[in-house]
Design goal:
The chain has 457 residues and is mostly helical. Helices cover 81% and strands 0% of the residues.
């Protein structure tokens, strides 16, 4: 008798899993509760633990916290030394709390899951936990940690990494960089994803279970790049893959139920015709959905194109108006620069005359007393350098003040040399102006460059 009860518990558990896989949660829940009931009668701790774990999965993340947590903690205890199953339980608890944004609780259970994974000695269990940590951190907006856990997840597959793992990695890493605002890294990851998906499905006809989901992301990425034709193509592949997945799951579930429980009935000719008819209806519905989606996408593309054309025309008009204003400002600026240049030329010519007269007078000791009279006649109450600075201030306002503030170590000759550099004088012209030799000008320029470093013009 106890053996029959134990077998009944195990049969109910297996039937519940089949119903759960087929999407029939209500029947699965009833069967799992039967498995729990018979498992308790037979004192089959492991079957009870599996039943309670699956009951919690049927309840889902929207269930009552107290009931959900109680079921999983009981299952955790029932699995005993089976640490791989205990990893699944702790991961489910972590997922529940992170879904409800209780991230501290989620991290607590995921840390326990990692401890169980280490005890289990299976790399697969560790991958589950790393993936769960990555999702938890991503939802908690701790993007740096999310990326770290995702990289650790990838490391567990090295040196040989399958395309499905790489697609998962580049897809989620691209999402992380997008949230971080790192568009270059995001574009690289989505580009790698696009390359792998294209390699996995070269003809673009039959996206399999590992590729069809990513076409949705690639469609959005293509729209971001402005490649609407490629976006439409990827969106079509995504919708086709979704329909294909639905049909495949339904076919597999029907076949599984038929094989385990209804073999004799499923071989009945009438039921075969019904199933065939259902498949035809689903296929026609799927094609109708694809046609509708393609039509909607074409309308969206057309609307976006018209909107973009209107934006471009508006931007072009605005650009033309700005060009007119800029051309007017440029003309005014050129005229102002010309006026300054004329004034500067007059000042330099006047300076040259003064220097010539000064040379003549200074060679004659008897006429040295006329020096101040000569400078007053040309520059008024200013000396020739002050007169030059007035012209410089008009051309480059606040130049002297800025120079004094940024480079207080410059001596007078070095400041003069820097200001004269704005007028593109030759070494000889600068030497004449400073009243020194070309060699001295080179030394002054060298000291000035060394003090000013990379900021030097």
């Amino acid at each position: 008798m106890p053996q029959d009860v134990k077998q009944a518990a195990q049969d109910a558990l297996e039937q519940g899993k089949v119903q759960q896989d087929s999407g029939n949660s209500s029947k699965a829940m009833r069967l799992f509760k039967e498995a729990e009931h018979y498992g308790l009668l037979a004192d089959d701790t492991l079957t009870v633990a599996h039943a309670r774990f699956n009951i919690a999965k049927c309840l889902g993340v929207f269930s009552d916290e107290k009931e959900f947590v109680s079921l999983l903690k009981s299952a955790d205890e029932g699995f005993g030394d089976d640490y791989t199953e205990r990893v699944r339980v702790m991961t489910a608890l972590g997922d529940y709390y992170q879904f409800h944004k209780q991230f501290d609780s989620a991290e607590f259970y995921l840390n326990r899951a990692m401890d169980y994974a280490e005890r289990s000695g299976t790399i697969e269990a560790k991958r589950w936990v790393l993936s769960a940590f990555h999702v938890k951190c991503f939802n908690a907006k701790d993007l740096e940690k999310s990326g770290d856990y995702l990289r650790q997840f990838l490391q567990t597959y090295l040196p040989e990494v399958s395309d499905s793992v790489l697609m998962y990695y580049y897809h989620d890493m691209g999402n992380i960089y997008y949230k971080m605002g790192n568009m270059d890294s995001m574009a690289y990851c989505y580009g790698q994803l696009e390359e792998i998906v294209t390699r996995s499905n070269p003809d673009g006809c039959n996206p399999n279970g590992d590729t069809w989901y990513y076409y949705g992301t690639l469609a959005n990425f293509a729209e971001m790049r402005g490649d609407y034709e490629k976006a439409c193509e990827y969106r079509y592949q995504y919708d086709k893959g979704d329909v294909h997945r639905y049909l495949e799951e339904r076919e597999n579930n029907l076949a599984l139920i038929s094989q385990k429980y209804d073999t004799a009935v499923m071989q009945n000719e009438l039921n075969e015709k019904i199933i065939h008819k259902q498949r035809v209806i689903i296929l026609i519905s799927g094609l109708a959905v694809l046609v509708l989606v393609a039509f909607l996408i074409s309308q969206v593309r057309l609307a976006r194109r018209r909107k973009r054309e209107a934006e471009i025309n508006a931007e072009l008009f605005h650009f033309k108006q700005q060009n007119k204003a800029l051309a007017k400002k440029d003309a005014e600026h050129e005229q102002l620069q010309q006026n300054y240049a004329d004034r500067l030329s007059e000042a330099l010519e006047k300076e040259q005359r003064v220097m010539l007269f000064l040379d003549i007078y200074l060679k004659n000791d008897k006429k040295a007393h006329l020096l101040k009279d000569l400078e007053a006649s040309v520059y008024g109450d200013k000396d020739h350098w002050e007169a030059m600075l007035e012209v410089v201030d008009q051309l480059y306002p606040d130049l002297m003040a800025t120079l004094q503030q940024k480079y207080p170590d410059l001596d007078e000759d070095e400041r003069k040399s820097f200001i004269l550099s704005y007028f593109k004088l030759s070494r000889q012209e600068e030497a004449d102006y400073l009243g020194t030799t070309v060699n001295m000008v080179d030394k002054i320029r060298g000291r000035r460059r060394k003090k000013m470093g990379q900021d030097m013009l």
